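ping. complex inputs:
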Amino acid sequence: MKPYSKMSKEELQQEREALEKKYEDAKAKGLQLDMSRGKPAAAQLMICRDMLDAINGSSDLNSSAGQDCTNYGVLDGISDIKELFAELMEVSPKNVMVCGNSSLNIMYDTISRSVTHGVMGSTPWCKLEKVKFLCPVPGYDRHFAITEHFGLELINIPMGENGPDMDMVEEYVNKDEAVKGIWCVPKYSNPTGITYSDETVKRMAALKPVAGDFRIFWDNAYALHHLYEEEQDTVLEILAECEKAGNPDMVYEFCSTSKISFPGAGVAAMVSSEANLAEAKKQLTLQTIGYDKLNQLRHARYFKDADGVRAHMKKHAEFLRPKFEAVLKVLEQELGGLEIGSWSTPKGGYFISFDALSGCAKAIVAKAKEAGLVMTGAGATYPYKKDPQDSNIRIAPSFPTPEDLSVAAEIFVLSVKMVSADKILALK
Amino acid sequence: MKPYSKMSKEELQQEREALEKKYEDAKAKGLQLDMSRGKPAAAQLMICRDMLDAINGSSDLNSSAGQDCTNYGVLDGISDIKELFAELMEVSPKNVMVCGNSSLNIMYDTISRSVTHGVMGSTPWCKLEKVKFLCPVPGYDRHFAITEHFGLELINIPMGENGPDMDMVEEYVNKDEAVKGIWCVPKYSNPTGITYSDETVKRMAALKPVAGDFRIFWDNAYALHHLYEEEQDTVLEILAECEKAGNPDMVYEFCSTSKISFPGAGVAAMVSSEANLAEAKKQLTLQTIGYDKLNQLRHARYFKDADGVRAHMKKHAEFLRPKFEAVLKVLEQELGGLEIGSWSTPKGGYFISFDALSGCAKAIVAKAKEAGLVMTGAGATYPYKKDPQDSNIRIAPSFPTPEDLSVAAEIFVLSVKMVSADKILALK
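pong. complex structure:
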């Protein structure tokens, strides 16, 4: 295909008219499609259903350590589930605290505690003139929303192929006392799909923060969410790296089974140094008597061990892989060579990240919506929902059925082409 | 029995020696007993087990309103569980938000949000010089601990037979702008077991707070927790009363199934005006994508309706009633007429409240502990763990086996007698 920018004005105008016709045809169908949400499809979740039979009314409902899962108590998780998370996250059970169903909730609470009570004796962030938080972009909107909600100043850090721009991270963290944290999705990052390189992890762990209460918020949400059996990204275990670099308390890691078992009915964990967990527990004990231990037991009994989880994840991949491939195929076929957009080809996670021509993302999302396709709002992958280039669009291929997905991808590329053609025509 | 204070010095010394002997005998047994925790016994929880069969891997896992309980979404609870709580709490489902497993967590989060973001546009409490919170005493230690944690100034309000001293409550709330809330357990109060009279509820609802962000924290933890079929306390529905009095947004009500289904694996709800719930949800949507809808569905399917819950509560009462009666019998037999203590005879809830002679509570709890009986720490029922009279002791008869309970009650009364005799002897 000839790049749009290399076409003559007449050629591009013709192309634009042909696109318009196709678009009107699609619009006339009155479709209702959704590629906005990183959630599993209903059919995919059927593979988790037998977890509900892992415990029943006549089961032994004690943990392996003899903890009664039907009664109050055990704030930081029953022995079995701690061991499972420890094995999965490659740490010791003493570095694991298992909570309720939402890792986002643990992150929110961790920020909230820092705001009201500080971190290990530091000044509460709400008492400080200014608190800054680093946000690798594009990134996860819900991360940014939490820190925005508490009035922190969010700073964009560009993401590259190997993770955040570490020169810039070091510049901020090692020189500015107001910088208190950074959001990271180290593996199959939301939305770019990249995985932090070993060098990135090592530099992250070796930061020399001016602020004693600086923490890395390491949201390992897609740790086990591979699309391919033969090609899997790996990321260095961050707790050990921080320990080696003399920063044992610098990281909070978060993970959950939300996209392993049931979204919303899974279990979530915080992984950190014993000192950090002790501090968290001291405050959590005021917030709750304990989390749902029966659901923890249900998970532990069902999966048995890390291999059980890994085997289960292969079943998820069977659903997700063809969806990713279907979208990527349409992108390649329809946009390849046009030079009006680039996209990621992730090996795992839940997203494809699309970069349109500068200034086109909002218009593309609006165009798609007009034809019945809901995309994640343009800008959502940036703090304050402001993408300075108006370029990034997050594509979530997991939820629609395979049939809907091809149609959705067609509408998306049509929208990209039309908006891009308009932009280039305006310059000719 | 002759009151200790009316005994001659010699009589009381003889009594004291006899007590000492019994106490040493008890101590020699090396007992390990616990009357400190308001939690159900293991045997009692067996009656809830078939709830785990209410849904399984082949169940329809959609709510009645068609909400998919296996996936993300539905922040404020599925239709079925909202309707169940609405029926139980005598309100409309639109006044119900169902969350995770812990009502304490909802209360903590509600206070935390007020501290960091204010209430409906009011100044965040963390930005105020002073925030005061009213604490009816004796009361629930975990309530007091939350507000203490956020640095609020806690003010003791004496509890009477009909609830908190409303003259004092009105004096504070209607005159002092720094007073932002009050903790209430309106039914089978923790620990006194009393239920607020209609007049108390009406006066509470008719408060004219100076602070626009004053809220009643109405922890209806024991709404359905009757000990007797024929003698049940009732409490006026507070939302309607507040509405009638022109204060529709003045109350947050909290409840849970923690002592109905499984402690720790139940569901909890906040009941309030639509405006209050809308504000809570606006912030909760940043904190979590949603709570465990499968557990909500499990509860709704198991109980079916309010009558289902009430029938289930009768089974709990079968376990609890004899335990309360066993302790009360020992108290009456061993302490009746001695004038060294008074105690409540609740019709529901989880506690018996004991008032020792002034200055004796700590010594009694210590004495009991020495003989192997753990009681709730003296002072725990007061803010800052400071009982100004050193008099109140919370007795929790629910957890020990019936056999252990009689032994525990004997050790308790022995401890009361010894410490009281010492006090009276010192004055003779």
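Chain B has two domains: 4-45+310-427, 61-304.
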